[in-house]
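Input/output pair, single chain:
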Amino acid sequence: MTDKLNFGKMNGLIPAIVIDNKNEQLLMLGFMNKEALQKTLETNLVTFFSRTRNELWVKGRTSKNYLHVVEISSDCDHDTILIRATPDGNVCHTGAYSCFEGIKNISTKNFVLQLYDLIKDRKKNRPENSYTTKLFNEGENRIIQKFGEEAVETIIAAKNGNRKEIIDETSDLIYHMLVMLAEKEIELDDVINNLKKRHK
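Output:
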């Protein structure tokens, strides 16, 4: 990849735009030289070149909020790269989610993906006073039963034709479907990719 990139326009540097792989929100902009990019590719941790300190620096080295690389691509002129990454925590040195003001972690478009991450965390850590924890503690049969009950209630709501009732029951159905997928250790991305394949 480094061979195709044009580092000459900015005296050996290229801009590196980082977005959150989960929700495609803009996280930060940094600069890389060839060495920083090579280090990033080797470690899968985003590593920049500091123009003020004149050295490489791994993003998150101090805060431990590392950026784990998912994918790197370049633009059409091969003089800028886009990095899809999974952040360990908030990215900005101010403590904000993003270095760009107004950008939040929660995005309506990708809320289901974030909800699924929360459900998986509930399965792993089992916090008290959580309905999701209660479902996981009751086991697979109860989880499947609840999903079936919600499916029937959604069908009844659709037959009744009440818009609010349909939205409420569909929300319950989707939530319990996610719990069932988490119980079976099936990633939501696997389902989404399967749908994409079918669409093609």
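The CA atoms of residues 112 and 175 lie 9 Å apart. The domain at 14-100 is CATH 3.10.20.810 (Ubiquitin-like (UB roll)).
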